[in-house]
Amino acid sequence: MALTLYVDTARWRAHHKQVLDQFPGLIPVCKGNGYGFGHDRLADEATRLGADVLAVGTTYEAARIKDMFSGDLLVLTPYRRGEEPVPLPDRVIRSVSSVDGVRALVGVRVVIEVMSSMKRHGIAEDELGLLAGAVDDIRLEGFAIHLPLDRPDGSDAVEEVIAWMDRLRAARLPLHTMFVSHLRAEEQARLQQQFPQTRFRARIGTRLWLGDHDATEYRGAVLDVTRVSKGDRFGYRQQKAASDGWLVVVAGGTSHGVGLEAPKALHGVMPRAKGVARAGLATVNRNLSPFVWAGKQRWFAEPPHMQVSILFVPSDADEPKVGDELVAHLRHTTTQFDRMVDR
Fold this sequence. Notes:
- By secondary structure, this protein is α/β, with parallel strands linked by helices.
- It contains 9 helices and 18 strands.
- Helix 5 links the parallel strand 6 (109-114) and strand 7 (139-146).
- Residues 272-284 have low confidence and may be disordered.
């Protein structure tokens, strides 16, 4: 009995091919928990796509993945002088976002990140003069720009990239390759048309692996079902059942990521109102679970345990049976499955 990730493999891979066709030179990203699929699976899929470079989050991930993928590995976290050394092969490319970092990586393959409107990390415009004197000592693979997802000010992503291309060109820095993130296919095509001597390579993770929501589905197996009457006490905290129904023990707990959720940016009145409502219910121990039974998301009977969750299903619904599987709406990047099944 397990929390299972079911993958419609043919549909999933058809989506990969569609994204690859839209973004020539695409670099798949495999970081964190492998977008819910695991590093080994995504390394295999990247090889199947014919990728020559796989982007990873950290040097520690690169050390784990180097035996799973035979091409180059691009570490996205920028190098910092004094970081813990991790033994890595020569086919690993380091990202750098400071002149000091460039100077510290003599002879190393390097991608230099420039500061975008994200304002997260990157070389600033006023540092380009210093940078020009340092790039001769590294093996420069190209420059990179990481762009924001939303632009509420109406600014143009392409114009932001063009502005940086002009700055780099004015500083007499080589522009043979530009690594980009969060551009639409038509935006990348515009850039490629305007700068035909530069190769634009999109680093894509979420859109590639998770872009077709209907290609994957989590399901938790029902392990036990116990009938309760209104007022019966149950669980670790011996709460009282609010009405007649069933306590349903389902595979999937905190060790799987159930009940753990990354904060979301809410836009608009209705999503904000729903967020306030959920927070209010949580103060009286009413928390909606990700598990669905009989067409409805069901409430946690109590906070999820380490490997299972206990749900309350009221008596007006059909009784779940041991061995049934409940669809679970879980976030791939925070979920750890027990098994993956291709179908």
